[in-house]
Write a structure and sequence with these properties.
This protein has about 250 residues and is an alpha+beta fold. About 30% of the residues lie in helices and about 20% in strands. The strands form four sheets. A five-stranded antiparallel β-sheet has the order 4-3-2-1-5. Strands 6-7 form a two-stranded antiparallel sheet. Helix 4 crosses helix 5 (about 155-170) and helix 5 (about 155-170) runs antiparallel to helix 6 (about 175-195).
């Protein structure tokens, strides 16, 4: 390895982190830790060359040449800095909450772009998950399920809204469906008021689990919706931690 080469640095953190070789001293290397910015003296067996796919960042992490925890986190970070908040791991979509509005990624034009497309044909996007479910259902694969999970503040509630927005928009030119779809979308704020609350990490944190069913008729049009809640944090009604609040409705 030579000066200026990007490498993976081991044993300095719980997982491998990117580093840059700044000096070669016999069998040891001076490597700049990209996380701390500090210079680390490392033996040859503590560093490995970084593959080009990790340097560039790619849309599907299954195709990473370096495949370990550090490379996955680094790939997400590279894409996040480019405002590319979605990344695939096969058929799984990883979303990193940007905590800001990114323009032109959820409009009607983007809905039309992903309509009817299978996962992996276009850049990673949450609309691709909705499109994949619709394609499978129309091909006769039966009911489809999208599981959205993550820690508090990860963006689960917003991701659910975006999936529903996509499903509502893909057939919005049909007047009767548009009415039903709009009712479903507009019901969300009211439902959230009874189950969402301000916490230290999130001003609109869902304090319950939610199972949302969209019902389609034989013509493949949305005919209704049912929402089931579970594990509601009932203790919040009578007592809240310091600097947190009760459910919005109260």
């Amino acid at each position: 390895m030579e000066v200026g080469q990007l490498v993976w640095l081991y044993d300095q953190h719980p997982y491998a982190v990117p580093g840059e070789v700044v000096a070669v001293k016999g069998k040891t290397y001076d490597v700049k830790d990209s996380v701390t910015g500090q210079l680390v003296h490392a033996d040859r067996d503590k560093i490995t060359p970084m593959a080009q796919s990790s340097i560039d960042g790619i849309g599907d992490m299954i195709n990473l040449q370096d495949l370990h925890e550090g490379s996955l986190l680094h790939n997400l970070d590279v894409r996040y800095r480019r405002k590319q908040i979605y990344t695939y791991t096969g058929s799984i979509l990883v979303a990193v909450n940007p905590y800001e509005q990114i323009p032109n990624i959820y409009g009607v034009a983007k809905v039309k772009e992903y309509e009817g497309q299978l996962i992996g044909f276009l850049d990673p996007h949450i609309f691709a998950i909705g499109a994949g479910a619709m394609v499978a259902m129309r091909k006769g694969s039966g009911d489809q399920c999208v599981v959205i999970s993550g820690e508090s503040g990860a963006g689960k509630t917003e991701s659910t809204k975006l999936i529903m927005h996509y499903l509502a928009q893909t057939d919005a030119d049909r007047a009767e469906k548009e009415v039903i779809s709009e009712r479903i979308l507009e019901a969300n704020p009211l439902l959230e008021s009874f189950g969402n609350a301000k916490t230290l990490r999130n001003h609109n944190s869902s304090r319950f689990g939610k199972y949302t069913e969209l019902h389609y008729n034989e013509a493949m049009r949305i005919s209704g919706c049912s929402i089931k809640q579970y594990l509601l944090e009932k203790t919040r009604i009578v007592s809240q931690p310091l600097d947190e609040r009760n459910y919005h409705v109260f």
